[in-house]
Amino acid sequence: MFLTAPVLEKRVVSPMPDVPKWTPPLAPDDLRHVLKRVAAWSPLDVEAIFDDLDTTIGNQPPPEATTPALVERLRSHLKRLSAIAVADTKFPPTNEMKQIIERGRPMQDARLPTDHQQAVGMARRMAFVTSDLVEKLIEARYIKDVA
User: Fold this and answer.
1) Which of 7, 55, 96, 136 sees the fewest Cβ atoms within 10 Å?
2) Which of 38, 115, 110, 98 is nearest to 74 (CA)?
């Protein structure tokens, strides 16, 4: 008795068509820069923004020792929220958002006063602008409110 095995047909495969060699969309240095930015990125923490607003606008003025750090966090929040408002060209910011961003623009680069009362005043002005902008962004659903 003979054992038989099935024989597969021989098929001729056509050679690969000429496909252009893939090239990266950015140069190596640019890719490193993108990687560095992505690695340093942190998600927007709306709860932290509200905490800083509460600290600034609350019943007690912020302590002198923590005021400079608070002002820098508010400055960072304001810059980030302004960038979110204008980021998507398909959904441009409303006129109200534009006005708020313009009100906050001078504060983004302003120097921190050395006098504590003036620094608290600056922090509160920055907090009111930040508060207005975050409210408008939540209303327009550019960002989500704290659950």
Assistant:
1) 7
2) 110
- Segments in the chain forming alpha helices (H): 28-40, 46-57, 67-87, 95-109, 116-139
Q: What is the pLDDT along the chain (147 residues), one digit of tens a residue?
A: 566 666 666 666 666 678 788 888 888 899 899 999 999 988 899 999 999 999 999 889 999 999 999 999 999 999 999 999 999 889 899 999 999 999 999 999 999 999 999 999 999 999 999 999 999 999 999 998 876
- In angstroms, the Cα distances linking 11 to 8, 14 are 9, 9
* pTM score of the predicted model: 0.75
Tokens of 120: 């608290």
Dihedral sign for Cα 21, 25, 29, 33, please. Answer: negative
Q: Which amino acid is at 46?
A: V
Would you put residue 141 in left (φ > 0), alpha (ψ -120 to 50) or beta?
left
Pick the closest to residue 108 from 66, 131, 80, 137 (CA basis): 80
For residue 72, what are its two tokens? Answer: 């820098």
